[in-house]
Amino acid sequence: xxxxxxxxxxxxxxxxxxxxxxxxxxxxxxxxxxxxxxxxxxxxxxxxxxxxxxxxxxxxxxxxxxxxxxxxxxxxxxxxxxxxxxxxxxxxxxxxxxxxxxxxxxxxxxxxxxxxxxxxxxxxxxxxxxxxxxxxxxxxxxxxxxxxxxxxxxxxxxxxxxxxxxxxxxxxxxxxxxxxxxxxxxxxxxxxxxxxxxxxxxxxxxxxxxxxxxxxxxxxxxxxxxxxxxxxxxxxxxxxxxxxxxxxxxxxxxxxxxxxxxxxxxxxxxxxxxxxxxxxxxxxxxxxxxxxxxxxxxxxxxxxxxxxxxxxxxxxxxxxxxxxxxxxxxxxxxxxxxxxxxxxxxxxxxxxxxxxxxxxxxxxxxxxxxxxxxxxxxxxxxxxxxxxxxxxxxxxxxxxxxxxxxxxxxxxxxxxxxxxxxxxxxxxxxxxxxxxxxxxxxxxxxxxxxxxxxxxxxxxxxxxxxxxxxxxxxxxxxxxxxxxxxxxxxxxxxxxxxxxxxxxxxxxxxxxxxxxxxxxxxxxxxxxxxxxxxxxxxxxxxxxxxxxxxxxxxxxxxxxxxxxxxxxxxxxxxxxxxxxxxxxxxxxxxxxxxxxxxxxxxxxxxxxxxxxxxxxxxxxxxxxxxxxxxxxxxxxxxxxxxxxxxxxxxxxxxxxxxxxxxxxxxxxxxxxxxxxxxxxxx
Length: 682
Description:
Elements: H1 15-18, H2 41-54, E1 79-82, E2 90-97, H3 106-114, H4 122-134, E3 138-142, E4 150-155, E5 161-163, E6 169-171, E7 177-180, E8 185-188, E9 192-193, E10 205-212, H5 215-225, H6 230-235, H7 244-259, E11 262-263, E12 268-271, E13 278-283, H8 284-291, H9 297-306, E14 310-314, E15 318-323, H10 333-344, H11 364-381, E16 385-386, E17 392-393, E18 410-411, E19 422-423, H12 428-439, E20 446-457, E21 471-482, E22 484-486, E23 495-496, H13 499-512, E24 520-524, E25 530-538, E26 543-550, H14 552-557, E27 564-570, H15 571-577, E28 594-603, H16 608-618, E29 623-632, E30 641-650, H17 659-677, E31 680-681
Helix pairs in contact: 2-9, 3-4, 4-7, 9-10, 16-17
Enzyme class: ligase
Family: Belongs to the phenylalanyl-tRNA synthetase beta subunit family. Type 1 subfamily.
Cofactor: Mg(2+)
């Protein structure tokens, strides 16, 4: 809108100066998941206070006094009953009667807007202010909706329906802690309010709740219902148990100041037992060893005290410490050492001029890493891009699959979302997500590869003595091709990627690793991941990989229109297969290679790979290459038959091959093809 200023307003005056608005500074702080204690302004200030003291600044840590809190009457007495003290160790409440719900004053609205919180009304804004200022979630119930003037903290039978504030009906678990009145549930404890649990413009009496809910209970309930709120975010990480009563008193005092009314009950406080401090034994030797520097004893004691860690006992060797329960991330001596170093300053620890090291011998792991880097460079040289996808994936990808049964999924106990609720059994779906992402951004010609673990569960291997035996992981290599192999070239017409291109890349990997095709067996495989697929096995029957054309139903799930060609190699089995293999340079043969062509009539279901396998099995010493240069189906052939034209390359490294030797090899090969595949020479 337009603001009309009086005539005496001086042009050019800054608006903030004219309206006497103070400067506000907003600091954005990234909090690591382990620092639940710093999820508030006071929590950050508490850490900053310790740092400032150790760096020579005069600092004082203050918070508003609640010494003036007083109960004015007993006109609205609401009882509290906690039936599950494991899930709710501490629950407290107080009532304020005669409130007027209206807009908050400008100062409170401005403070909330500055931190990205939308002001609602004075009652709700007070609770939002306190949760961000001190990290204690609060809830204001309309006291008139609390039937029987009693709040009961309990669980309800499995499947009980409950409508939350977002007007969604949810089926409760018997492990969901609920805040109830004497008649019905009002709120999912620590997570989300019910449809009638909040205050409205007509509210005149409020019951303010302040509690400490067990983090595990809140976390499981929030995940179970797919809810993530400011309250659950803090409760599931662990709040300060000591702030429950303080924040309750502060909320009641602010409510009285901003909404009017009187504090109309004593604080009802149900506490099973105070949450104990974490007792930690800290030795100076371990601290100095880990940090790499001898820190003066007085400095160590000063730092721990500034972090509100009590010193229970002191000896020449170290300290016995009591860490406050709001520091859920500091429960071991190494955690205390990390905190001391953080405040002392990493930059104050000099780089040591002594290197402590130990010698280790080469292992199979070293060989695996070396070959992994080698193959990565080879694929990058062929135009591939390496991708790295999350090992967590969506269980729905495996619905109705036979090749990767849902019963073998490793499920997460507390998934962050339904999209990441299990561990992957195959690399395929992560790659399809990457392809879909790129295709949606007009990048359709793709070559990807990925190294990563796949995870499996087997109920048959599980025993009471060895529960972890049911879980296993395998290291795999995945390769994806889609789109065009050649596009927009002046020298070549456009050419689509194909299964044969992928097969060549797979064969080149085997060759580079010292595993010639003669040592492998390829054959058709029935796999619902593919529309057409081949398996690659060792002579001993171990599968080292599969490759083929991804089934259309999987591509449809990702809105991918083009064919996708995919190969997945079992890296662990590959490493076993090449355990004794050696690769190296050798001199080119001085003797000429000989080429012979054969035309073979075979059944339509016979694939070239089967002919190739028979050829290599027939002549292991002199046969260098088998290639296919023509396939014919049509006139002049029997029904159900097709013709393959293949080329054989023979070479001896010690002498020139004679016609007699060549004829002997080809005759033997033709006979074996006839016996094993029913092939006939044309």
